[in-house]
């Protein structure tokens, strides 16, 4: 198994078994995943969010509250799974070079927006301006989703691109629903 970075910033991983397999056998065992190096922070923070949710669940298991249960779900599903999926898929689907400012903006908007949503929800009943935090955080996710779409501009149409766009659409549709629920 070999891994490396090409000169254009694309990570490659070749999962061919070592041991001298030749011809059809070697090609049948090959799994190649190529993705842009800039997608690694999305994957790393997403994985950290899933682990963090596990720690939070363990720490609050004896006395879970409505907030900790919700925060675990948000950390795992949005900050974790969605971020990993969008970051990795954008890195795989991207056919044009991504500017550092675009990638950094998508990363900051997505993670800062999510942090504000979690913080605002956690402050419910503690401060009167918690809903404003949730609103600002939710609003930050809109341009983040736009940037995720921008990162895959020009990608070849196919099932993976359509699935990617569906994930973005689900976030864009569920975000205002969450903002309305924050007011209830």
Notable traits:
single chain; mainly alpha; 67% helix; three-stranded antiparallel beta sheet
Structural notes for this entry:
Residues 9-24 have a biased composition (Basic and acidic residues). The chain crosses the membrane at residues 40-61, 73-95, 102-123, 129-151, 163-182. Keywords: Membrane, Transmembrane, Transmembrane helix. Residues 1-24 are annotated as: Disordered. The protein has 184 residues and is mainly alpha-helical. It has one domain (37-182). The chain has helices at residues 23-28, 40-60, 66-93, 100-122, 130-151, 159-182, and strands at 2-5, 10-14, 32-36. The longest helix has 28 residues, at 66-93. The chain is globular.
Structural class: mainly alpha
Mean pLDDT: 86
Number of individual domains = 1
Distance between the termini: 52 Å
Overall helicity: 55-70%
**How many whole angstroms does the radius of gyration measure?**
19 Å
Shape: globular
| Order of the strands making up the biggest sheet | 1-2-3
Instruction: Say how many strands there are.
Output: 3
Topology order in helix (H) and strand (E) letters: EEHEHHHHH
Major sheet description: 3 strands, antiparallel
* Count of helical stretches: 6
SSE diagram, text form:
Elements: E1 2-5, E2 10-14, H1 23-28, E3 32-36, H2 40-60, H3 66-93, H4 100-122, H5 130-151, H6 159-182
Antiparallel strand pairs: 1-2, 2-3
Gist of the model:
The protein has one domain. The protein has six helices and three strands; from the N terminus they run E-E-H-E-H-H-H-H-H.
């Amino acid at each position: 198994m070999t891994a490396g970075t090409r000169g254009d910033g694309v990570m490659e991983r070749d999962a061919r078994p070592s041991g001298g397999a030749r011809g059809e056998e070697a090609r049948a065992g090959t799994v190649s995943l190529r993705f842009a190096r800039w997608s690694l922070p999305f994957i790393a923070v997403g994985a950290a969010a899933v682990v963090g949710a596990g720690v939070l669940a363990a720490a609050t298991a004896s006395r879970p509250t409505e907030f900790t249960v919700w925060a675990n779900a948000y950390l795992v599903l949005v900050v974790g799974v969605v971020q990993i999926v969008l970051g990795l898929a954008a890195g795989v689907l991207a056919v044009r070079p991504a500017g550092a400012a675009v990638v950094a903006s998508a990363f900051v908007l997505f993670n800062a927006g999510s942090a504000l949503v979690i913080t605002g929800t956690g402050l419910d009943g503690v401060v009167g301006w918690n809903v404003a935090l949730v609103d600002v955080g939710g609003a930050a996710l809109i341009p983040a989703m736009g940037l995720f779409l921008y990162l895959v501009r020009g990608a070849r149409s196919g099932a993976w691109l359509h699935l990617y766009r569906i994930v973005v659409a689900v976030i864009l549709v569920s975000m205002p629903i969450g903002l309305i629920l924050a007011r209830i």
